[in-house]
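Below is a typical protein record.
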Amino acid sequence: MTSLHADEAFLGHYHLSHDPFAPRVPGFKFFPAQRKPVLGQLHHLARYSQLLLVVTGPLGSGKTLLRQALVASTNKQSVQSVVVSARGAGDAAGVLRQVAQALDVSNAEPNAILKQVVQLGLTGQEVYLLVDDAEQLDESALEALLALAAGTPEGRPHVFLFGESSLIADLEQISGEQELFHVIELQPYEEEETREYLAQRLEGAGAGIELFTAAQISDIHESSDGWPGNINQVARDAMIEAMIASRSAVKRPKMGFTMPKKHVLAISAVVVVAVAAAWLIPGRNKAPTTTGAPTEQAQLPLGKPTPNVEFANSGQPTNLPMVGQPVMRGPLAEEAGGISEGDDGVPVEGSSATPPTVTTTAPPAGVPAGVPATPVAPVAKPAPTPAPTVATAKPAPVTKPVAPAPAAKPAPAAKPAEKPAATVAKAGAAGSSWYSSQPTGNFVVQILGTSSEANAQAFVKEQGGQYRYFKKVLNGKPLYVITYGSFPSRAAADSAIKALPAKVQAGKPWPRTVASVQQELAATR
């Protein structure tokens, strides 16, 4: 599940009446304290200034909300507000057509519109002309609006342009050395204003600010740079990521007290070893033989040192009271049959498939009876093999030939390590190194975040070009964040967003600094 496809699950998980961080929520109005002086300044300039007024800020900085507040706070009896949009109609003809229609003017020309403005002024009504998305106006539209703002001696409309900072350069190029416009730049929210904004958004959807911790609110404020549009995206992503993490925890199987199958087999193997060792304790002087074949015995002389019995995988030889007792040389696996392999096909250590290797020491040839034999150094432990091996040092002379023990089968060769994991790790490292090499002041466009690296790789492969992803950790879980491009300024990143495909823009991509990405990469390491 990605942030592009989590709408229904997102609302149901948090019991929300609607998406609290949608770009346009009906009835939502948040106007922080710092914006009230800006609103008062606009009213003051509209009354006393003869210049065109420009309000700038990045995408999602609250320009439209300020424009709505300006219209709402005017006296409807003395001011007629005309709101037009430059989106899709950024030339002079498109803008003038909207103005003429709102003022009920048949001829969409600047002179005809100004005559209507003068007529309204005679009746005691001023005209506020407010243009949204003004950065999309072309040169002809800007020239027409500057002409309307200049007006005539009899009257003029008050023209307000709400757009991104790129608008200023276009106006400066047209006006040259003349002072034709005044600029007001919006400022980002403070952290406390971010908290109030989140609280009001969540309360409108039936939730509360307690969904976020104080640390999460600080992270949201820092990642969004305090701009409300970015706050919406970052907060929504954080809630979706928390939802994915909580659902993954619920789906994780409970451990309980159920013992894994391998552990059961290991305990069974210990029992088998105990049964095998029972053949070596005193009191078992005889053992059943097969169809007349004599059982070979290695008789240990009385009075000799206690033989050392060394078990495979044991730390040191163990002394057993075997003096004068026969040692069976038949394969222990025949006596302790049963479990041979674990659930993955590999012999379980300590099971009947890997029985203990028993080594006894006896006096070498030529040593007379009654003389203590020189202790023999313990034999190095052999590697476990599927077939049991019981090696006994025979006293000399041996009256009967000893049948050779069956050859041990070689242990199965280890399977070669899988390679795909290394490939994925290499790809992730390459992406991280690219972000580390970018200037910290640059901006990238965050497209989406997903908990599946395969989904991130598929998205990047499908889109190609300048799409990349990096890995970060959220609530102990990996999250793969897809970004687009590297831009020297936020304005350049905002412009790139508008050129993205429609299905990518549907996820509300937003610009963020390379420095913030590098911080997340450093935290992940």
Summary: The first strand starts at residue 52 and ends at 56. The chain has 17 helices and 13 strands.
